Amino acid sequence: MLKPIAMSAGSPGRDDKARAGSDEHVSQQEQNGDIYWPLACPRLHRTTLRVASLHNLPKRGERRPQYSGSRGACHAHVPELSGTAAPPDSSDPSSPALVFSLHPIGGFCAVSSRLPLPPRIETEITTEAITKGGLNAIFDQNIYCVAAEPHATLLRIGVTQDRVQEVAYATIVLGKLRPGYRVFQLRGSQHGTRIELCHLFVHIGVGGRLNLWQNPRQMRIQRAQGGRRFKQKLEEKEAKHVEELASLREELARLRPSEATSP
Predict the structure, then answer these.
(1) Fewest CB within a 10 Å sphere: which of 8, 53, 105, 193?
(2) Half-sphere CA count of 51, side-chain side, radius 13 A
């Protein structure tokens, strides 16, 4: 993941934050150049994942690394890093559950199974296990992911087997998810190699929510920015009134000579 633009020296976002440091309510540390990130954000990004189904999860003890595909040649260089195939220990399908967790570089984030968000904010949530549904588990459940900085927040989806151990996972930048139906190919938790035929089918919706979880420092910066914008509007109105007054004076100067010569 790239560093957020607002954290780069000389970026417009950083300049805006530096100007915010001129307000008396902003701390002396911010005035000295230790600019705070992330900025105060009035609205949060919301991603809704409707988890439809999980397909072809490996059975207990089974290892099914995917060696084919466009990057199949990579497995020939260091084979031990790709894992080895192994048959299942038993023929009974497992009972999988999904673990959704958010990992932010910065900013508020929360994951929940309902909206509005509950009073107790969580960054990890686990679904109910589907009994013996490892081959084709139907979840049909909504998961709501909320983040102030979605492009600096990672969404990790883990798959646990019989609530004992994690066997597969997928990791996505939250802000990169586009609306519509999506298929996530899962990776094995041991080596990170893609699992042959193992997919999670979801529908993604994108929206926003009002940010009610700003910390005190963000609120001070937002108030400083609001005061600066208010002052800028006053200056613009004052300049407009001065321009109108000058125009009226010019018009009056043109009318006075005609009044002096009139009978």
Answers:
(1) 8
(2) 26
- Residue 105 predicted with pLDDT over 50: yes
CB 220 within 8 A of CB 200: no
Q: Which three-class secondary structure string do you get for the chain?
A: CCCCHHHCCCCHHHHHHHHHCCCCCCCHHHHCCCCCCCCCCCEEEEEEEEEEEEECCCCCCCECECCCCCCHHHHHCCHHHCCCCECCCCCCCCCEEEEEEEEECCCCEEEECCCCCCCCCCCEEECCCCCCCCCEEEEEEEEEEEECCHHHEEEEEEEEECCCEEEEEEEEEHHHCCCEEEEEEEEECCCCCEEEEEEEEEEEEEEEEECCCCCHHHHHHHHHHHHHHHHHHHHHHHHHHHHHHHHHHHHHHHHHHHHHHCC
Q: How far is CA 63 from CA 82, 160, 192, in A?
A: 11, 15, 12
Query: Distance between CA 98 and CA 194 in Å, rounded?
Result: 17
Determine the Cα–Cα distance for residues 2 and 11; give it in Å rounded to an integer. 14
In angstroms, the first-to-last Cα distance of the chain is 82
Amino acid identity of 71?
R
Both structure tokens of 207: 């929206």
Give the position of tokens 């996972």: 169
Contact status, residue 203 vs residue 177, Cβ threshold 8 Å = no
pTM score, whole prediction: 0.72
Q: How many CB atoms sit inside 10 A of residue 65's CB?
A: 21
**What is the distance between the alpha carbons of residues 17 and 9, in angstroms, rounded to a whole number?**
11
How would you class 125 by CB atoms within 10 Å of its CB: exposed for 0-12, middle for 13-18, buried for 19 or more? middle
State both tokens at 190: 């041991």
